[in-house]
Amino acid sequence: MIGQLKGTLLDKRPPRLLLDVGGVGYEVEAPMTVFYDLPETGGELLLHTHFVVREDAQLLFGFASRYERELFRSLIKVNGVGPKMALAILSGIEADRLAACIRDQDTTSLVKVPGIGKKTAERLVIEMSDRLDKLDGAPAALPGRVALDAAPDARADALAALEALGYRNKEAAAAVARAAEQGDDSSEELIRRALRTLAR
To answer: At residue 144, does pLDDT exceed 60?
Structure first.
């Protein structure tokens, strides 16, 4: 089990990033909440990880805090929620807010999160309510967000990230286009605005 990685950030292409740990490059999938606060390429990064082994793949998921990782682990235990859907859920809502919605049985807010329908929201509330207090770690205070330089292909990166999270090309492209109307920022900012649009 790989539980933590600390190394140099080599590349970031949502939802995947590449981390150099002692000369070994680890490809890690992470929710967009992680990408919003990544250091510049070449900077040091610590991730709390969850390793998934399947017959057809070995996948490594990374999170900014132990609490976020524990929420992910709790999510994938819910009937009908796999790692990809759990990643999409944590990309659409911050960990502490997701926990609050579950505690308050706020299914109305949950269904606005990308990837959560009415039945899934009800299952999350029923199956996760008792688990929340047992999760390791506490909600981390969100650090100040640092604006990242916009890349020329920020829109393409944003579109690719949304498709990787499970959105159809047409709806993802429309959301990115609407997000870009507010200005061509970094791909991370475009994805954040597009996810808000898709959640409406």
So the answer is: no
